[in-house]
Amino acid sequence: MISTATALNAPANMPFFRLWRNLPLVLIAAISHVQAGEWSGYLSSEYRAFTKNPIDTRQHGNNLSFSAQPEYYAEWNGGRQSFTAVPFLRWDENDSERSHADIRELTWLKANDDWELRLGIRKVFWGVTESQHLVDIINQTDLVEASDGEEKLGQAMINLALIRDWGTLDLFLLPGFRERNFAGSAGRLRSIPRVDSSLSRYESSDGGKHIDVAARWSHYLGDWDIGLSYFNGTSRDPRFTPGLNASGELVLIPYYELIEQWGLDLQATLDDWLWKVEIINRYGQGKRYTAATAGFEYTFVGIGDSSADLGLISEILYDDRGNSAPTPFADDIMIGSRLTLNDEQSTEFLLGIIFDSNDSGQLITLESSRRIRSNWKITLEGQAFIDIDSSNLLAGFRHDDYLQLELARYF
After folding, report:
1. CA atoms of 269 and 69, how far apart (whole Å)
2. Could you read off the pLDDT of 32-72 as tens digits, one per residue?
3. Is residue 82 part of a domain?
4. What is the pTM for the complete model shown?
5. C-beta separation of 313 from 339 below 8 A
6. Are 394 and 385 in contact (CB under 8 A)?
7. What backbone torsions phi and psi does residue 365 show, to the nearest 5 degrees?
8. 153 beta partners
9. CA-to-CA distance for 110 and 163, rounded, in angstroms?
10. Is residue 13, in this structure, part of any structural domain at all?
11. How far apart are CA 103 and CA 72, in angstroms?
12. Closest by alpha carbon to 237, among 331, 332, 133, 333?
């Protein structure tokens, strides 16, 4: 067993496995050094109104839920060490699977001039495109929170960042796999038939205890921001096979395979243009394949002699597996518009449409938000599924058009 002095003062020289084995001691030692930290976070209420009756009669109609996400942050040693804790809790009126709790972050950070070490549970985001984030692979998707894949579960990790003139190299050791969560039998939005996570299977004999590794190099070259990433471990995206559960119900069974993935993300800022590319090459889920998302955003600054900016967005979504790809976004086009008023209330609107190139299906998304005074924020979101064919992977969602109103109180 290592001492607390060793845990806090010499972690950069310890092997990753030894650090992880002693993580509870490290966190206890960190907390013991915390003086008066700062609390922040929010409480929110959310109401979803659906425009159609559900396909499955067990699914609910309009729905109310409440969530809370407090955050505690403290630093010491001149900011070279810090501790962050971010729990999350949601209660849902109808779906027991959506009523859940998670630790988004529980992290100790030790920083030096040319390296940073983080231990605990974190959320890490990689990616630059708007319609989907192919390279973003560290955290599992919190699918009951949002169907667009933007919300993530916390992931246990050891993260060592080497900060050099030639860029930043992040190394990750990821123990403790998180399964994707899915809506229950009463929930919306969900597939038809529903996913039964209690029957989940793994390719690895270690199951959810397989230890994954990842790395990412990031740097900037003139107007370009570049990231090159690598991941080896259990895929966050399960495949699904039909089967019967203990009640004899036809369900989809998640199967988590071992994969190796290389990723590249690029973004160029050229005057009023943003050019964006994400490319992955993955092996392990059948034949090796390549997928990409690429496009641009052009911003009209100060439209109509006002302070508002209007951005036009266009992206191409490509997967070389074509129609056999287990994703609805294999050969699609996305167009959208972002309106930012740049006012005191930080008012923003984002409207996007994804067109399926193989049929007439369309997915429309709306995101808008506005601050009220200094502590309140109102958000309006929505999705609509237009002309979705019965063979489309989004067929189970075709009756789930909704508008969602959220009111949050920040502190």
Report:
1. 33
2. 555 579 999 999 999 999 999 999 999 999 999 999 999 99
3. yes
4. 0.89
5. no
6. yes
7. -125, 145
8. none
9. 13
10. no
11. 12
12. 133
Structure tokens belonging to residue 108: 């100790």
CATH code of residue 57: 2.40.160.10
376 forms bridges with which residues in the sheet?
372, 409
DSSP 206-238: TGGGPPEEEEEEEEEETTEEEEEEEEEEE-SS-
305-325: pLDDT as tens digits: 999 999 999 999 999 998 888
Question: Is residue 292 within 8 Å of 315, Cβ to Cβ?
Answer: no
Residue 9 pLDDT class (50, 70, 90 cuts): very low
Q: Would residue 4 count as lying in a domain?
A: no
**Residue 127 has which token pair?**
């990616």
- Answer positive or negative: Cα dihedral of 198, 202, 205, 207: negative
Query: Could you give the number of structural domains in the chain?
Result: 1
Q: Distance (Å, rounded) from C-alpha 158 to C-alpha 115?
A: 13
Tally of CB atoms within 10 A around 145 = 20
Check residue 8 and give left, alpha or beta (phi > 0: left; psi -120 to 50: alpha).
alpha
What residues contact residue 257 under an 8 Å CB cut-off, 6+ apart? 203, 234, 235, 238, 239, 284, 285
Range of the domain at 209: 34-410
Burial-class residue 70 by CB neighbours within 10 Å (0-12, 13-18, 19+): middle
